[in-house]
Amino acid sequence: MKIVVIGATGIIGKAVVQALSPRHSIIQVGRSGGEYQVDLASKNSIQNLFEAIAPFDAVVSAAGEARFNPLESLSDEDFQFSLSNKLMGQVNLVRVGLPYINDNGSFTLTSGVLTTEPMLGSAAISLVNAGLEGFMRAAALEAPRGIRVNVVSPPWVTETLATMGKDVSRGMPAARVAAAYLEAVESQRTGEVLDARLF
């Protein structure tokens, strides 16, 4: 399959590319790196990307930024940034991508463990993740031509914790997280949240 990986230069994205590459043709997309670039906060940028690389069989998003701050210090701008990037950016991958993806193709988006296991400072991220999962379930019902839509929910990733100077013992290596993306792309699942800890 011809698979577009958004966020291909990130920690999870690199692992997803490595997992998919042996059996598929991968187009690597990043914010500033990769073969192509995209700004998830810009619908026009997404449109231009898909026009340049279509048609394709699958889109995997391991991208999207959201702000992590205590509730009382989260500003309107923090919420808007989070909604525009991680939520609407990934929603628009599906909305804009539908005309460009092949029959029986798939979209795999990324939420995260903070949807169901929130922590101090995660209000904006938890909001975005929950919204994305709700969108996915509804979009999967309406997607035409056998197109599937799923979300992978990763836990804290070992490599991310290491870069933050945090305890890595509670993390999961990106290579293991990538197994859930492989399942989402290669199976017939649709309308599901795949908890990466289960793969």
UniProtKB/TrEMBL annotation:
Statement: the UniProt record of this protein carries the keyword Oxidoreductase: yes
Organism, scientific name: [Phormidium ambiguum] IAM M-71
Gene Ontology terms, MF aspect: oxidoreductase activity
Transport in keyword set: no
CDD domains: Lin1944_like_SDR_c (cd11731)
SUPFAM superfamilies: NAD(P)-binding Rossmann-fold domains
Family: Belongs to the short-chain dehydrogenases/reductases (SDR) family.
InterPro entries documented for this protein: NAD(P)-bd_dom_sf, SDR_DHRS6-like, SDR_fam
NCBIfam families on file: PRK07578.1
Gene3D superfamilies reported for this sequence: NAD(P)-binding Rossmann-like Domain (3.40.50.720)
Entry keywords, A to Z: Oxidoreductase
Source taxon at top rank: Bacteria
Protein name: Short chain dehydrogenase
